[in-house]
Here is the input.
Amino acid sequence: MTTDLNNYLLFPHVGQTFMIEQTVTHQKSSKETREIAYEITSKKPDIADAAQLLQDNRGHWCIENSCHYIIDWNFDEDRSRIRTGYGPENISQLRRFAIGVIKNKCIGSVAQKMRRLNKNMHAVFDYLKMTRNSCHVVTS
Here is the structure.
């Protein structure tokens, strides 16, 4: 951690810069690689020490893995060809909404549930309780 670079950075509200070094073991090959990440935060050293910065970084990756990874894996979002107007934002919101609905109702894997729903459109409407068979219809 350092504040030495603060006067040199053209980044508003910079509190400190820091480096995280980690050794990653790849599951398939058991090969280890060393990764270094340089980061900037608006938190001053008196608010965030090294332990807090590491905790914040891990929290960021927890969100990344639980949300963005699921969306990219299931919808292949990084290869989306939707690029103009409000299209990218709208489709991204719809994808997040779909993942949220599945996560809210599903105990198992989101990917497994999506594969099952992709194969049967009637199952989607039943899952969302949008059919006569799946929801209680009030008649007057």
In short: Residues 136-140 have pLDDT under 50 and may be disordered. The chain is about 45% helix and 15% strand.
